[in-house]
Design a protein that fits this description.
Multidrug-efflux Transporter Regulator, Chain: A, Domain 2, 6 helices
């Protein structure tokens, strides 16, 4: 199947500019004739993407949902990457996610306490607003 860039982007759940950005970053191939990575065809001045290109785009999006940065994703898809290296990247990502979860839970607890204080009423400014002005 040959997809135009707009069909390709839509199939991957991104915009056309995101596809172009990923191409500039080297995460996706550029189907232009003569490009270093070109895997697609160009007919009538239009770029066409393959099913393999779409699988790669969906992989990138899935890895982003798992919290990987584009730099980390670039490392994940490097052909010389071994299983232990990929596992190490995943473990490092898990540690970062755990730290973020801890931070978010603390923020949630603090905000819930402020909301409770705000609901209690009382004189002076809202405790939420006052806390953010510090």
């Amino acid at each position: 199947m040959a997809l135009t860039i707009s069909e390709f982007a839509r199939g991957g759940g991104v915009g056309v500019e995101t596809v172009r950005y990923y191409q500039r970053r080297g995460l996706l191939t550029d189907p232009r004739p003569g490009s270093a990575h070109g895997s697609g065809r160009r007919e009538g001045g239009r770029r066409h993407y393959s099913d393999e290109d779409l699988r790669r785009l969906r992989f990138i999006r899935s890895a982003q949902r798992a919290g990987f940065s584009l730099d980390e994703i670039s490392g994940l898809v490097a052909p010389e990457r071994t299983r232990p290296e990929v596992r190490s990247l995943a473990r490092a990502r898990i540690a970062k996610l755990d730290a973020q979860i801890t931070e978010l839970q603390a923020a949630r607890k603090w905000l819930a306490e402020l909301a409770q204080e705000c609901a209690a009423g009382g004189p002076g400014p809202c405790p939420i607003i006052a806390a953010f002005e510090v």
